[in-house]
Design the sequence.
C-alpha cells in the first residue's frame, strides 16, 4: 500500500537527512558545521541536508535556492536563522501564511498555513552556488515532495535558480521557455509558477525587493490557488 500524507512526508524527510549524493556539498556543509561562525561558536550546527516543511495540505509552495551555510545548515530548517528568512517569514505572517513573524530554530513555534517551504538544493553550497549536477541530484527530492503535496497549485520561485528548477520539474517541455522575472507567471500543468526576487540581503538592502513586493506575490499566490481550486471543483461537477 502506498503511504500518503504526513507519514509519507516524514519518511521523505528522514531520507533527505541521510543523503550524501554530492561529495562537494557533503564536504562543505560538514566543514562549516565544524568550523562555525564566531557568533554561533557555542551552538550545535545541523550540518546535514534539509527537507521542506510546512502545511501538508498547502496549496502554495515556496521554492528557494539552498540552505544558507550559517542559517539552515546551522538550524536544520530552510530559511531559519538568517536575514533572508527574517524577511520572508515577516511577509508570510503579514499575509496570513505563518502564525508568527520570525523563525530562529526548529521547535520555535512557527507554523505555516496553506504554505510549504522547500529548496531546489538541500545542502548549503559554497558561495551559494550549486553546480548543475548538484541541482540534478536533488531533483528527485523535489519530485517526491511535490507528489505528496497533492493540493499544491502555486510554486513561488525565489530567484532564477529556483525558477529553472521549477520549470525542469513541472514543465520540462514548455516552449517558448518563460524567462524568470519578478511577478512573472507560467502555467506548468496543474500548477502555476510565480517568480519572485530572492529575499537575499543583496536584494532587500538595495530595495530591489521590498516588503510590499513580496507581500504582493504572496497575495497573488493565494488568488491563483483559489482559482485553481474553483476550476477543479467545476471540472468535477
Sequence:
Amino acid at each position: 500500500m502506498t503511504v500518503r500524507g504526513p507519514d509519507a512526508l516524514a519518511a521523505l524527510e528522514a531520507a533527505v537527512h541521510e543523503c550524501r549524493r554530492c561529495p562537494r556539498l557533503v564536504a562543505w556543509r560538514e566543514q562549516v558545521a565544524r568550523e562555525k561562525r564566531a557568533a554561533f561558536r557555542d551552538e550545535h550546527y545541523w550540518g546535514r541536508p534539509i527537507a521542506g516543511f510546512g502545511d501538508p495540505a498547502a496549496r502554495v509552495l515556496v521554492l528557494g535556492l539552498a540552505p544558507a551555510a550559517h542559517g539552515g545548515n546551522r538550524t536544520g530548517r530552510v530559511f531559519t536563522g538568517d536575514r533572508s528568512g527574517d524577511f520572508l517569514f515577516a511577509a508570510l505572517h503579514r499575509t496570513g501564511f505563518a502564525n508568527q513573524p520570525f523563525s530562529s530554530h526548529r521547535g520555535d513555534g512557527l507554523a505555516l498555513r496553506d504554505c510549504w517551504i522547500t529548496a531546489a538544493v538541500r545542502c548549503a553550497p559554497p558561495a551559494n552556488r550549486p553546480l548543475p549536477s548538484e541541482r540534478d541530484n536533488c531533483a528527485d527530492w523535489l519530485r517526491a515532495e511535490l507528489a505528496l503535496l497533492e493540493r499544491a497549485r502555486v510554486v513561488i520561485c525565489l530567484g532564477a535558480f529556483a525558477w529553472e528548477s521549477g520549470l525542469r520539474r513541472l514543465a520540462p517541455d514548455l516552449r517558448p521557455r518563460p524567462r524568470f522575472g519578478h511577478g512573472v507567471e507560467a502555467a506548468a500543468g496543474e500548477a502555476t509558477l510565480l517568480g519572485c526576487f530572492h529575499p537575499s540581503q543583496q536584494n532587500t538592502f538595495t530595495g530591489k525587493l521590498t516588503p510590499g513586493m513580496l507581500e504582493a506575490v504572496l497575495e497573488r499566490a493565494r488568488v491563483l490557488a483559489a482559482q485553481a481550486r474553483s476550476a477543479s471543483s467545476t471540472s468535477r461537477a
Remarks:
- Residues 153 and 228 are 7 Å apart (CA to CA).
- The mean pLDDT is 94.
- The chain has eight helices and six strands.
